[in-house]
């Protein structure tokens, strides 16, 4: 017989949950008198784990059957209550980062990883946006265009020590479709789509915003470290519902202590809609995971082997509501299925003074991605079918007036990562060293069939690409070596700590015509921290530390950047459309361009920062100033070529005299030249960031167990072009009867500057004796500024149709033709515009019911304050956004 009481009052504790861990696992509950009978449990040795709200966890070895009654007295959870965080906590690591634990995630009630970002300095609660790709944008103000996706592409996600690599994802319909369905769902060159990451199996997240360890690379912005649950957990299920989505997940963790073996399994399903009344636009996510860990204790070393098998699929769907449109055939579906297998072997040495551990990792992932788009095409006029695969002038046919087009994009990205890491320790001198040395190999390849459609039934009449098999694209191999020394020394009452690292890498698989082929680049990184002597203030220690860092962070190009599709330009030379199909004639000039940029370089971000941390009586304050300078981000830029063709006069042949199809030589024609453009990836984006991040976290106020957390950030982010660019003269300007005869060369910066200041005040109360956690937050965006950078509007030079370059002079600005190369901007277009305060109040509550049920709810924008303001003598009235709410229930079996 087992009895459970309190240590202070000897009162019985009813309904306490007990887990017995042995060859099998048992989950039991004490009765109303705090008692439990083990007569139904087989004899043997067990580990007893006891947890109850408001009390410290209890654990001891137990032999059944019991020889005598067992009395367990639990201690109230008083001291550890200050360690309960339901907001992000600034890490004690030397790199500037935020740590988010399981308790915080449960209280936040996220649907995807996107919701987690609310907890960061500068974060803010937002409604889910699950109908489009959710890229990450750390330490930045504003929502820039896709030309600045390097912010998201340059953020590394590392799950259980294994990097998530999306370099081989090329799922795109660019050049094949005019539909916007895929534009907001295109994940290629964006990095990780945070919609695809569920949070139910995550134990801890560390978001490194500062200078990361040299162990992590192929990044520019930051690192997201995700650690998932390991070891025993009861069967549990979670059901969440909000205004846009429904989520269900289930999980279980097993532990065999005798064999030192752990296994965790979980699965989840998310179904989201654009709005509750629209059943035709949706997003779905299915995920499943099996994670195992086995430990061997030997005389000289401890061996830990882990194996993770993950599956996930995301489905974007869209089709026309038959009650609102006659296009019953139009539909879009994008499905991404991923299988991931990771293996890790860690060896911890017991008898070696200098070698602490060895770590060997392999990570394989394979995805089956498929886009299917069906569209009803209806020609508005006599449109020509452009489907030639060869360059030059040729006869073409007219497109069918109406047909159904089917476009399929088949992508099969595959990645293979291997890594070996050694940790070395030298602690026998005053200067202590913790050294990391490692090598890493990353291989990316796409085995898909690519874009597929019937060339006679194209998705659009203005094709700029043709079908291409992805498996024809070479694989991409990145080879890396890194070394890092984290050293520390005490000098009197001072303590100095530094993390000095270097990372060298090369793309070894590129064709030698690429500038990056076998070119070795180096990223140096350094973090330092100075812990000042402790000062006694009112009998308690006041601790202060100063820190700083500098680092270079590099992102290599992706497969689609290095090996883009050919660009096809089809110019109609003759469109002779008669009433008799037998006498119709179409003639097209096709030009083919290879937009491969063999001079493309890596994108590099130089980052430095310094800050301070203060702690006193469990009160913590941190502030950090940073600057980031990225000059060579990836973006599509326009390049122009002169195309020569013949423009035939369709009126030069009288259709009334025809009995058969005419010949092209029957028509009179005029030779012409024009400038035409195509897109090529360049290192043309500039992103400059600077700002201040701050966090204050108080000790919990005794009696009400309430913590006050204040965090926020001031950001200035400048998005700009870093390379000169070209623009043609407007197409409606006629020069000697011809168009597109001049090409302007511009050095004006084309970009915007954004600035914002926000503060989040959170009051959270943790009342374990009642099983209650609730929080209220006041999130204030004090202001948001936007300003377009000044542009003169005039080129520095121009090219005529023969390719001759001329300087652009003041006289050209008044020329009847060349003046059209100058863009005239409005009077106020370069003014700074400020949007004033946008304040919202949010509320969250979680209730534990009898240890087995956890009920939660949240309301965002319970109250809002968005006052009207003036801009250019015009009053702008902002409507308060409606509240957004949801609830969930979790059950432990």
CATH topology of the largest domain: Maltoporin, Chain A
Structural class of the helices, strands and pairings?
A: mainly beta
Strand-residue fraction?
over 45%
Tally the helices. Answer: 3
Average pLDDT confidence is 91
Q: Gyration radius, to the nearest Å?
A: 32 Å
**Quaternary class:** single chain
What does this structure look like?
The chain is mainly beta and 893 residues long. It folds into three domains: 2-77, Carboxypeptidase-like, regulatory domain (Immunoglobulin-like, Sandwich), CATH 2.60.40.1120; 155-835, Maltoporin, Chain A (Beta Barrel); 838-892, no CATH class. The chain is 2% helix and 55% strand. The protein contains three helices and 49 strands. The strands form seven sheets. It has a 22-stranded antiparallel barrel. A hairpin with a 2-residue loop joins strand 27 (476-491) and strand 28 (494-507). The longest helix has 7 residues, at 102-108. The chain starts with a strand and ends with a strand. The mean pLDDT is 91.
Name the features:
22-stranded antiparallel barrel, 893 residues, Immunoglobulin-like, single chain, Maltoporin, Chain A, 3 domains, 6-stranded mixed β-sheet, 49 strands, 3 helices, mainly beta
């Amino acid at each position: 017989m087992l009895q459970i009481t309190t240590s202070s009052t000897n009162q019985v504790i009813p309904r306490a949950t007990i887990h017995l861990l042995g060859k099998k696992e048992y989950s039991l509950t004490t009765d109303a008198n705090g008692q439990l009978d083990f007569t139904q449990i087989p004899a043997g040795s067990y580990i007893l784990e006891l947890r109850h709200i408001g009390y410290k966890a209890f654990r001891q070895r137990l032999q059944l059957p019991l020889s005598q009654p067992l009395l367990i007295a639990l201690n109230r959870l008083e001291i550890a209550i200050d360690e309960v965080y339901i907001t992000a906590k600034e890490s004690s690591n030397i790199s500037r980062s935020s740590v988010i634990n399981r308790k915080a995630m449960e209280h936040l009630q996220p649907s995807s990883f996107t919701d987690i970002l609310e907890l960061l300095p500068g974060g803010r609660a937002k409604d889910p946006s699950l109908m489009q790709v959710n890229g990450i944008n750390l330490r930045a103000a504003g929502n820039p265009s896709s030309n600045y996706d390097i912010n998201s592409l340059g953020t590394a996600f590392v799950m259980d020590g294994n990097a998530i690599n999306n370099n081989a994802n090329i799922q795109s319909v660019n050049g094949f479709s005019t539909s916007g369905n895929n534009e907001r769902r295109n994940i290629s060159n964006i990095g990780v789509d945070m919609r695809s990451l569920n949070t139910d199996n995550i134990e801890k997240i560390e978001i490194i915003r500062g200078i990361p360890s040299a162990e992590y690379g192929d990044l520019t912005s930051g690192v997201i470290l995700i650690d998932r649950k390991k070891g025993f957990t009861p069967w549990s299920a979670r059901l969440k519902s909000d205004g846009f989505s429904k989520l269900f997940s289930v999980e279980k963790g097993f532990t065999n202590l005798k064999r030192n073996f752990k296994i965790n399994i979980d699965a989840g399903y998310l179904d989201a809609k654009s709005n509750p009344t629209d059943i035709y636009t949706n997003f779905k996510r299915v995920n499943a995971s099996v994670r195992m860990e086995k430990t061997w204790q030997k005389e000289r070393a401890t061996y830990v082997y882990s194996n993770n098998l993950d599956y996930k699929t995301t489905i974007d769907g869209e089709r026309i509501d038959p009650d609102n449109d006659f296009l019953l055939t139009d539909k879009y579906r994008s499905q991404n299925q991923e299988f991931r297998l990771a293996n890790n072997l860690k060896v911890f040495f017991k008898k070696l003074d200098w070698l602490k551990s060895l770590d060997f990792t392999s990570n394989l992932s394979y995805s089956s991605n498929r886009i299917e788009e069906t569209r009803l095409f209806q020609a508005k006029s006599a449109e020509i079918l452009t489907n030639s695969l060869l360059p030059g002038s040729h006869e073409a046919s007219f497109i069918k007036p109406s047909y159904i087009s089917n476009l399929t994009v088949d992508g099969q990205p595959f990645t293979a990562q291997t890594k070996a890491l050694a940790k070395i320790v030298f602690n026998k001198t005053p200067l202590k060293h913790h050294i990391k040395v490692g090598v890493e190999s990353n291989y990316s390849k796409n085995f898909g069939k690519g874009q597929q459609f019937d060339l006679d039934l194209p998705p659009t009449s203005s094709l700029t690409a043709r079908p291409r098999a992805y498996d024809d694209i070479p694989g991409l191999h990145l080879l890396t070596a890194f070394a890092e020394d984290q050293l520390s020394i005490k000098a009197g009452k001072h303590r100095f700590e530094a993390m000095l690292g270097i990372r060298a890498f090369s793309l070894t698989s590129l064709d030698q015509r690429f500038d990056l082929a076998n070119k070795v680049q180096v990223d140096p990184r350094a973090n330092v921290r100075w812990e000042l002597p402790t000062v006694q203030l009112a009998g308690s220690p006041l601790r202060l530390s100063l820190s700083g860092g500098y680092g270079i962070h590099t992102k290599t190009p992706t497969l689609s950047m290095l090996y883009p599709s050919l660009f096809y330009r089809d110019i109609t030379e003759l469109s002779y459309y008669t009433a008799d199909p037998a006498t119709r004639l179409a003639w097209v000039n096709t030009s083919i361009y290879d937009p491969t940029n063999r001079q493309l370089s890596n994108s590099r971000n130089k980052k430095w920062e310094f800050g301070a941390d203060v702690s006193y009586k469990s009160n913590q304050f941190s502030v950090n100033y940073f600057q980031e300078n990225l000059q060579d981000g990836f973006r599509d830029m326009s390049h122009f070529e002169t195309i020569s063709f013949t423009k035939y006069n369709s009126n030069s042949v009288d259709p009334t005299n025809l009995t058969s199809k005419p010949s092209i030589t029957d028509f009179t024609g005029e030779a012409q030249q024009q400038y035409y453009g195509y897109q090529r990836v360049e290192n043309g984006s500039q992103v400059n960031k600077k700002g201040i991040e701050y966090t204050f976290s108080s000790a919990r106020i005794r009696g009400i167990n309430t913590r006050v957390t204040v965090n926020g950030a001031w950001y200035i982010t400048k998005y700009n072009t870093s390379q000169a660019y070209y623009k043609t003269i407007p197409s409606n300007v006629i020069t000697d009867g011809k168009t597109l005869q001049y090409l302007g060369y511009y050095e004006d910066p084309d970009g915007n500057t954004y600035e914002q200041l926000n503060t989040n005040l959170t009051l959270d109360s943790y009342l374990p004796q009642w099983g209650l956690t609730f929080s209220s937050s006041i999130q204030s965006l004090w202001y948001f500024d936007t300003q377009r950078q000044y542009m003169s509007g005039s080129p520095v030079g121009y090219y005529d149709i023969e390719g001759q370059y001329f300087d652009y002079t003041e006289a050209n600005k008044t020329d009847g033709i060349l003046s059209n190369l100058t863009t005239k901007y409005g009077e106020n277009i370069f003014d700074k515009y400020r949007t004033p305060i946008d304040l919202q109040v949010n509320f969250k509550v979680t209730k534990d019911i009898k240890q087995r049920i956890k009920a939660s709810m949240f309301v965002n924008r319970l109250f809002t304050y968005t006052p009207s303001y003036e801009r250019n003598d015009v009053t702008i009235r902002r409507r308060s956004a409606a509240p957004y709410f949801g609830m969930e229930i979790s059950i432990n079996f």
